[in-house]
Amino acid sequence: MATTSNQIYKLYLDNNPAVTSLFKYPLNPDWEKISSNIIRNFKNQQFLKILADQNKDINNKKYLNHLDQKNTVVLVTGQQLGLFVSPLYTVYKILTTILYAQKLSAEIKNYNFVPVFWLEGEDHDFAEINHAHYFNKSGNLSEVIYREANSEIGLSISKRLISEQISTIIDEMRSALIETEFSPSLFEQLKHIWKPNRPWHQAFCDQVRFMFNDTGLLIFNPADEKVKQISQPFFRFLVENNRDIVNAFAKQSDRLKDSGFDNQVIVDQDKSYIFLSYKDGARIALQRAQRDQFVLKNVEKPLEKQDLLNMLEKNPKWFSSTVLTRPIWQSWMLPVVSYVAGPGEIAYWAQLNEGFNSFNVQMPHVLPRLSMTMLEPKIQRLLKKYAIDINQVSGNLDDFVRKQIKINQSPEMENEFRNIQNQLSASSQKIQRQIESIDSTLNSVIQKTYDSAGNAIEKLQDRILRRIQETENLAVQHFNEIHQSIYPSAEPQERVISSVYFLNKYGPEWLNTIMTQIDLNNFKRQSINL
């Protein structure tokens, strides 16, 4: 039976050999050894100079000053550029990167560990980033949506300018949120950062800097024309050896399947794993054809390998990586000691080792991002009132509410129904033993009869619980509030809610609260009391 990506993630956290063998390094590695290995094989110092130049104006130069030192390695994370830095797991990836850079720098004196956020501005799936969710004044889940212009469909995010609608969106969000002492300065900043005619990726970058101003976090923009210009050797190698590289991805993916795991990314031999923004237009996947030719939608004739290489020499900015080639390009450019990844990313990183080998690039360590649930004071009180363990809150609202009614509203009735079911089971076994010597063929009839009786009792209990649920309005309301806070839209809070909600309600100290409570050695979901 194949294993889902979420199970791969769990097995990785458990240091299961079947999964960890697919990676270059185990979850808990020898950091000094990895750092030495990365530095020894790193050749592209010019990208560190670009990284320094892109961050020259930051206030806290704690890490910036390390970039010209030979013992510097970087911890990298990245994410699509969600509106207002949404959802929360983007913030948690950045926090993980910062906190581990601090931790490793303190523990391993021979090396400098620098936190870097990689702007994934070359992605073009706008529907995944054009919205932000939050809890409004009534405590209900609300959403703002930024509408895409027809002229921008398919364009990389780094090529998009913010339109006039952003002002209305910010005003809508502010009017829906509870007003706090932090609201005026927060929304003044948002209007300054997210304003018409600014590049989308620059607004995202500036909000990250606003939120993490004192940490020294560095931000890297791979869409920079200088980056593309000196990345030509990488893309040239990708074009010239495309078939072998795709075969390497397929080989590792087959190894994954042979071990009983699903592939997070299906490797397609007809894909080149290169994107082209041909003539600075929409970002389109470059397909492979016969005889090492390539096919690009809207371009009539197939492209020969040399056509692509000529195009690369003249217009390197047209070329961009994909989900499988981006991690390799990242480590080709920077001395990446570890990449901070979410569950789905860890699943597809398990497919990459052979791809790294094909480029002769060192695969870095993969560090799971920290996972959190913010517990606001009211939710803390309700959890305490009903003696609910947050780890027992499931994603299904109906199941959660019914379970809590059983536990909190009718414990005696729940015990009575449990006793009835136990008695039915014991009675069934007793009668079957007695009838065995008379006519064993009756056993199945007896079992069906008792099963039917058990089902009838269960239906009766459900009917009573539904009636209790209808009459116990306050308790049900509380259970709904708990569930919506922890699993809005039946998804973990970190996958839905925008950072703006917590910044508005708790101010910049919200991030410091996380830093003081989080356990860096615990990659399971943790609760943070606000």
Tally of DSSP helical segments: 22
> Can you tell me the overall shape?
globular
Overall helicity = 40-55%
Segments where pLDDT lies below 50 for 5+ residues?
Answer: none
Using only C-alpha atoms, the radius of gyration works out to: 28 Å
> How far is the first residue's CA from the last residue's CA?
42 Å
Biggest pleated sheet: 5 strands, parallel
Strand order of the largest sheet: 5-2-1-10-11
Structural class: alpha/beta
Average pLDDT, rounded to a whole number, is: 91
User: How many strand elements?
Assistant: 13
Query: What share of residues are in beta strands?
Result: 5-15%
Task: Explain how this protein is built.
The chain is of the alpha/beta class and 530 residues long. It has a domain at 394-486. The protein contains 22 helices and 13 strands. The protein has helices at 5-13, 17-20, 31-41, 45-54, 88-107, 165-176, 183-193, 200-211, 225-230, 232-240, 242-258, 305-314, 326-333, 343-349, 353-359, 377-385, 397-409, 411-435, 443-471, 473-486, 499-506, 509-517, and strands at residues 72-79, 112-119, 131-135, 141-145, 218-220, 271-276, 284-288, 294-295, 319-320, 336-341, 365-368, 372-375, 526-529. The strands form four sheets. A five-stranded parallel beta sheet has the order 5-2-1-10-11. Strands 8-7-6-9 form a four-stranded antiparallel beta sheet. A two-stranded antiparallel sheet has the order 3-4. Helix 10 (232-240) runs antiparallel to helix 12, helix 17 (397-409) crosses helix 20 (473-486) and helix 18 packs antiparallel against helix 19 (443-471). The longest helix is centred in the C-terminal third of the chain and has 29 residues, at 443-471. It is globular and about 90 Å long. The mean pLDDT is 91.
